[in-house]
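[Solved] Which block belongs to which protein?

Original post:
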Amino acid sequence: MINVLGSLPTLILDFTHKQTNRGKNMGTKTMQPIRSNELNYWQNVIWDKFAKRKKELETDLFQEVKVKARQAQSTFNKKLKVDSKLEQLKKAEKAYNDFVANKEKIEKEMQQKVAMLVDEIRTDLKNWNEVRQWENSSCNSLKTLFGLEEFLEEVCYEETKQAYMKTEKGRLLAELNNSQDEARNVLHSGGSITDVVQNLDNIFKRTKIDVRIPKTLLAIGN
């Protein structure tokens, strides 16, 4: 990673000196295109700053959505009307595990009850999937209590994440991705160093990314 504080002063002084001499020699304002070393510098700044900011927002998303999804799980199961059947399935599976070793008749009855409840819940989830359009739609492979609960956790997280992306932090993450593309386009726009840096400065401020660009660099060419 390039040392921003170490490289900027030398870059600014060198660029300012050449820009001043050109102005004196030509007597007119000349647009100075961005040079390769400056291009490389800003490419590294963009990559580093956006990567850090994106990591911060994605960390917030994962942590907050995970907590919210865990808090919402019980309500979510009730909303899908599978909570009571899940409780019945837990009891049925426990009863099955308790008796399977010693009582063949009870084992068979419990197996049938478990299978029936799994099938009912799986059918419920298939019907809900048609309405809610979950990305994770592998209901057909669900055959156990563990599999059902794991599936419900995943789709609950998915819906909680979708709701999170509509909040301010979620919109910030979406805006960050769009702004990074915009910053790359600005950098390769072929504009003057002044215009490029000014536009990058505006993008950094808009996305709340802390890049301290010296006023002298922003004033070059004015």
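(Second protein starts here: sequence line, then its structure tokens.)
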Amino acid sequence: MNRIPRRELVRKGWHVLPGILGAPIIIFTPKWVTLVVVWFFAFLYTLQHLKLLRGWKFTVPIADLSYRTMAREDERDNFLGSFLLWVTMAIICTIFPKIAALSALWVSTFGDCFNAIAGQLLGGPRIPWNRRKTFIGSATMFAVSLLVLWASHRVLELDPSPAILMGVAMVATLLESLPIPSAYDEFTVPFSTALLIWLAYGGALLSPAW
């Protein structure tokens, strides 16, 4: 069993924070409140990303703290991952129904987090098409995604279809395993989850209310 560096655990703590704090906003508040909150954070993280790219010298509240705490080595001059997560979640909350938004949030935050922890902690055989990923990590991503998809349905008092949940979890796991820069997972995983949930259940797009 491998040891996970403290900084990586702190990074994962920041990574799941939107899933913990954002879920009650999606579940219990009107859609306009959710949109105000999520677009506010999308603005902050867009500003932080642009600041790093352009070398601007000012502090962005919240986003600057999370950058100093969780940025990877390849994010010295950008904050692409967090920027993509917040902008993608803002778009999802604007376009899709509540179940799609909550499912996307939880799969992206919890699924991806426990995937990385399990993969780094337990190691094991590598995925042939992406040597940075392990089968154990991907299996964990699938299991956690399945669990949070079920939980999102139960929280909203919906009856989940096991086949739909397994299909969505499988697609999210596959997309997360692709040999692309890890920051792009913050778009592909939540958006595909929201889109597939909407395709499965339907519902109004761009509705002013949940």
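Accepted answer:
You had them paired correctly. Confirming on the second one: Residues 1 and 139 are 17 Å apart (CA to CA).
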